[in-house]
Amino acid sequence: MIDVVKIKENETVDDLILSGLKIIQKTSSFRFSIDAVLLAHFVTVKKKDKVIDLGTGTGVIPLIISTREKELDLTGIEIQEEMAEMAKRSMLLNNLTDIKIIAGDFRKLGKEFNNKFNLVVSNPPYLPLNQGKISSIPEIALSRHEIKCTLGELMETAARLLKNQGRFTLIHRAERLGQIIALLQKEKLEPKRMRLVHSHFNKPANLVLLESVKGASPSLKVYEPLIIYNQDGSYTNEILNYYFGGEACAT
How far apart are CA 75 and CA 136, in angstroms? Predict the structure, then answer.
C-alpha cells in the first residue's frame, strides 16, 4: 500500500509497532507523543462503539483504538487541514479507509452529530494562552496552547456529541485536575475512572487520565499510578505492553 500512498519530501513513515500499524508524520514540527498512546490504551472501548477523537492530529489515537475492539465506527476531526490530510493518508496506508477523518473545527460540528457517540476522546492542548511561550511553529503552537479551543469549549462539545451514558476520556496536565473536574461536572459529565501518570516512581504525577460518563451518578474509581520509566530510563513493562502487546489497563 505504501507504493500508492504519497509520502512528501518532508515526511516520514513511522512504525507504531502495534499490529503493524504505520503513521505518516513530518520530519520536523509536530509529532505525536507517548501521551496519545497512554490515552488510546486507557479508554474503555466496547464492540460497535461509535467513537470520535477531537483534535486528532495525524490520527494516531483512532489508529490505536482500531486494534482495541471489533466493528468500531471511528472518526477523527482536526482543525489543521494539512494534518487532517496527512491523517487520511495514514488511514489509507494501513488499509483502514473506514476510519473517517474530518478537516474542521469540532466546536462547529452540525446538529447531526449531537448525541451520536458512545465515546469521545481527546488529547487536547495542555496550556492556556497566559502560560508558557507560544511556539512560532503553528502546528506545535496549536497542539500545546489553547489557541483554537479552551478547555471549557472542549467539555461543551464532548457533552453535546455524547449519547446519554456515553464516555468522554482525555489526558491532561495533573496540575489542572481541579479545573477539569469542575468543567466536566458543569456539563453533566461525571468523572468515573482516573489514573495519575508519573514519569518515574519517585516523581510527582505530571499527567492524568480521566474518563467521565454523561448523566452518571457520582462515584470515582482511582487506579494505581501509571509509571512510564524504570530507574535506568527504560520503559516499564506496562508501557512496553502497550507497544508490543496492545493490552489496555485493567478496568
Answer: 29
Looking at the DSSP bridge assignments, the partners of residue 194 are: 210, 222
Asked if residues 35 and 58 have their Cβ atoms less than 8 Å apart, the reply is: no
C-alpha cell at 99: 476510519
Task: Report the alpha-carbon distance of residue 149 to residue 251 in Å, rounded.
Answer: 30
Q: How many structural domains does the chain have?
A: 1
pLDDT tens column, 87-130: 999 999 999 999 999 999 999 999 999 999 999 999 998 766 57
Element holding 238 (H helix, E strand)? helix 237-244
Residue 175 lies in a domain: yes
Is residue 234 one of the residues assigned to a domain?
yes
Which residues fall within 8 angstroms of residue 135, CB to CB, at 6 or more apart?
A: 141, 144, 145
C-alpha–C-alpha distance, residues 140 and 127, integer Å:
12
The answer to whether position 213 is within a domain reads yes
Q: What is the pLDDT of residues 17-72, one digit of tens each?
A: 888 899 999 887 778 889 999 999 999 999 999 999 999 999 999 999 999 999 99
Q: For residue 2, is it within any domain? A: no
Contact yes or no for 178/190 (Cβ under 8 A): no
What are the residue ranges of helices labelled H in 98-231? 138-144, 151-161, 177-186
Sign of the CA dihedral running 247, 249, 250, 251: negative
Distances (CA, A) of 50 to 73, 77, 142, 161: 5, 14, 26, 11
Rounded Cα gap, residues 153 and 212, in angstroms: 16
CB neighbour list of residue 240: distance below 8 Å, 6 or more residues apart: none
